Amino acid sequence: MFEDGTVNPVYQAKARLLNAAIQEIGMGRYQWYLFVVAGFGWFADSVWPLIGGLILAPVVSEFQFNSPFLSLASNIGLFVGAVVWGIGCDIWGRRWSFNVTLLIAGIFGLAAGGSANFVTLASLLAVLGIGVGGNLPVDSAVFLDFVPGSHQFLLTVLSIWWSLGQLFVNLIAWPLIANFSCAQGSTPETCTRSQNMGWRYLLFTLGGFTLVLWALRFFIFTLEESPRFLVGRGRDAEAVAVVQRLAVYNGTTCSLTVGQLQAAGEIATPKGAELSEGHKMAVLSRTSHYTMDHIKALFETKKLAWSTSLLISIWGIIGLASTLYNNFLPFLLASRGAQFGDSSYYTTYRNQVILSVLGIPGAFLAGWAVEQRYIGRRGTLAISAGLTGAFLFATTTARNSNALLGWNCGYSFHSNIMYGVLYAISPELFPAKDRGTGNGLTATATRVFGILAPVIALYANLETAVPVYVSGALIIAAGFLAMLLPYEPRGKASL
Asked: Which PANTHER family does the record match to this protein (predicted)?
């Protein structure tokens, strides 16, 4: 997929040998188990960023604060997590990040349920976001490193876990918030903790469930270190050992040898990352974290720099557009004179469940579309973004809850396809040795603009329709940018 000079030629030769070896092993038991446990990351990334919106109304009733501040705290944590874990997994390896992110989310999710005031809740959700923010950058890199090139489309299908997460959290929130919350519009004087336990029960449930998912990852499934990461660090023998263990686990054989990798040449050890005899490297040793090597590698040639810059722009644009829409639509509808008359917790969360169900077929449709000859990844992303923007525009015409629900069904269905493809194409367009860093940069872009949206909501005129229209235009523009991506991963094994 990459032109000559884009990737270190020695690494490229070794990566091709690894690709052939993993293809020889095939899509076996290990990869299908990985499909499940990596999916936990998509699940968490769906559940926890939604939590601020799901608990917002009852929390405001109890603590009385300016509502955008809760979203701001959560997005700051997600931003830090994307930077730390995305770039970090290219420095200290995938296994650390893969096994720690869910643990942080589970612990601080449980703790957030016991918050006695807004500052405590916002602080705990921010720390929780540090764990959640690393899930997708790390987990997509891990999955792509082990799956055969013939099955890379499954990275798109992994978004079904994102849809299941949405469905799960809304199914849990529906009875808990509807039945164990103060009446809407209550004040701290009339809304005591004992009357408003629904959002706490929700956080306890999700925190505990996240810890169960972490335990399944950590104690039941043994994640091997990525052979592509090991080769990129000059650890050929360890990479071959991982591939051979993978073959044994799947009940197949593999012909890859250390000699074949060594014959391709030697990759220079990154500056300051000297390895001991046992190839053990301290996490805090001087590594490429200081030399910026992984970031520079993503801009090695003009074509790769254009690809990386476009991906970062697309992620940032969609991140801003989505959060602007979610922040401003209720105010737009109210200012337009919409009379719903059924804004109860029950109706609100019932509608959320309906919208969540639509994401499940969207994931399978995305997985099919990205493999079609004349569409591919870029075409599917462009088409789904265009339709997402169109339905977003249409929501502004709603004058009753049924109309709003109908337009939102179209928006939800196509946006799930859009995100599924975006989550897949991004790691495919980065070389494996720098993939975590690339994923971290794109995730950072969407988190930075996610931070800007609640800031805009704090200071902008909330009665205007302009932000919602701007959101639709931005998502459509992101679709056009997708067509300008210089690489199409369809039919090509990722390096």
From this structure: SYNAPTIC VESICLE GLYCOPROTEIN 2, TRANSPORTER, PUTATIVE (AFU_ORTHOLOGUE AFUA_7G01740)-RELATED
CA distance 394 to 236: 55
**Helix segments in 370-465, DSSP class H:** 376-395, 401-428, 435-459
Residue 243, pLDDT score: 94
Q: At what angle do helices 135-146 and 29-63 cross, to 10 degrees?
A: 170
Helix residue ranges per DSSP H, 336-374:
345-369
Instruction: Look at residues 163, 157, 160, 147 and name the one whose alpha carbon lies nearest to residue 370.
Output: 157
pLDDT 10s digits, 437-487: 888 888 888 888 878 877 776 676 656 667 778 888 999 999 999 999 998
Q: What is the residue type of 428?
A: E
Nearest by Cα to 242 from 88, 92, 95, 89 = 95
Any residues with CB less than 8 A from the CB of 19 and at least 6 apart, and which?
A: 149, 493, 494, 495
Which value, in Å, is the radius of gyration of the alpha carbons in the chain? 23
Which pTM does this prediction carry?
Answer: 0.84
Structure tokens at 330: 């209720």
Q: Which residues contact 120 (CB under 8 A, 6 or more apart)?
A: none
Nearest to 427 by CA among 310, 291, 304, 311: 311
Q: Any idea what DSSP says for residue 277?
A: T
Tokens standing for 378?
A: 């870029």
Contact 267, 8 (CB under 8 A): yes
The residue ranges of every structural domain in the chain are 9-227+294-483
- pLDDT per position as a tens digit, 36-64: 999 999 999 889 988 887 888 888 888 88
* Element of type H or E holding 69: helix 68-88
* Interior angle at CA 341, CA 336 and CA 342, nearest 5: 120
| Residues 77 and 126 sit within 8 Å (Cβ to Cβ) | yes
| Measured distance CA(382)–CA(420) in Å, rounded | 12
In whole angstroms, what separates CA 253 from the centre of its chain? 34
As given in the structure block, the two tokens for residue 326 are: 């979610």
Provide the CATH number for the domain formed by 9-227+294-483 in this structure: 1.20.1250.20
